[in-house]
Amino acid sequence: MSDFTALRRRADTLRRIETDAVREAWFAGYNRGLRYAHFQTLGQTFGTLAEHELFLSAADSIDLPRAALGRGYRAGLTLTWVNPS
């Protein structure tokens, strides 16, 4: 199993069992960021530039789950495990 697959599985499992909406959103964003970064390393695209910018800007939202989604997305772009913030 690749590191990418292991990270995605871990994040998806934690998202599904999470009871806090903010942390659940963080894991969803993290998973999305992982996919974006992974496909970029392969020279492929995942989503559009507008979607990418929207996810990046979500971290600055005053809405807590939306901000968590954006922070998770940014963390996923590192292609490493990062604990939710």
What report would you give on this structure?
- There is one protein chain.
- By secondary structure, this protein is mainly α.
- It has one domain.
- The protein is 69% helix and 0% strand.
- The longest helix has 21 residues.
Outline the fold blueprint.
Blueprint: H1 3-17, H2 21-41, H3 49-58, H4 64-76
Helix pairs in contact: 1-2, 2-4, 3-4
User: Could you tell me how far the N terminus lies from the C terminus, measured between alpha carbons in angstroms?
Assistant: 27 Å
Q: State the helix count.
A: 4
Number of domains: 1
Q: Look at the structure and give the mean pLDDT.
A: 94
Give the biggest sheet: none
Strand content: under 5%
**Unreliable stretches covering 5 or more consecutive residues:** none
Number of strands: 0
Instruction: Please state the CA-atom Rg, rounded to the nearest Å.
Output: 12 Å
The gross shape turns out to be flat
